[in-house]
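Researcher: Let's do a round of design. I'm pasting the structure tokens now; please hold your answer until I've finished.
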């Protein structure tokens, strides 16, 4: 209850439009699907995937940096890293273990496996979509631990798409189907409250001082 009161207090420091925007965006957020990128070399690709996650309502993104460790390109991400939770891992093995512990199936996105075409993908299962390195693709560790292989149907001479394009296509498709289903895909009330407080923290200047005054006044 105290956290709800704090949120209501913090919202008085925001414009009505910002409060309304937070509520609208939060209502479309999901953890039913999540995304992981593995050792993506080109910084703008990871940043573009973050933007796609934000645009299509994916709340969490796992970034594996076993070989390539780089800062997120703020200009390309265009602030999306403020709204999407980034979980960073130094090994793909630990990333997969963490995801499976949360009940996610591992979906390897690759044009070279014929397990499932995008239009036939089963949206009922909690899923993490893995996207691999620009030239080598996904590692054997991901492929060997994958519960499903997913590919985008292509009819041209090109055999693969840029990972940020692939991510956008897949996320647009699966989230559209998800939101037309009867699946309970939204964040829980406690998750929504936690994220709105987090977004307030990233938006309001002097956030720490305001929170300290709130608790001192309401003790």
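Researcher: That's everything. Go ahead.
Model: Designed sequence:
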């Amino acid at each position: 209850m105290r956290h709800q009161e704090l949120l209501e207090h913090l919202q008085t420091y925001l414009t009505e439009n910002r409060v309304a925007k937070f509520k609208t965006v939060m209502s479309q957020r999901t953890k039913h699907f999540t995304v992981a990128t593995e050792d993506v070399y080109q910084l703008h690709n990871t940043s573009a995937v973050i933007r796609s996650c934000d645009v299509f309502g994916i709340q969490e993104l796992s970034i594996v940096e076993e070989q390539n460790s780089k800062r997120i390109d703020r200009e390309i991400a265009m602030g999306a890293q403020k709204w999407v939770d980034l979980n960073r891992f130094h090994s793909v093995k630990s990333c997969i273990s963490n995801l499976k512990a949360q009940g996610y199936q591992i979906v390897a996105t690759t044009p070279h496996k014929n397990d499932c075409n995008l239009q036939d993908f089963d949206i009922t299962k909690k899923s993490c979509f893995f996207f691999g390195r620009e030239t080598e693709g996904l590692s054997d560790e991901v492929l060997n631990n994958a519960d499903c292989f997913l590919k985008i149907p292509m009819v041209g001479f090109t055999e693969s798409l840029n990972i940020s394009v692939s991510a956008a296509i897949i996320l647009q498709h699966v989230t559209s189907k998800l939101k037309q289903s009867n699946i309970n895909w939204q964040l829980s009330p406690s998750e929504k409250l936690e994220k709105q407080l987090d977004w307030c923290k990233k938006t309001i200047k002097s956030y720490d001082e305001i929170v300290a005054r709130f608790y001192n006044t309401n003790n």
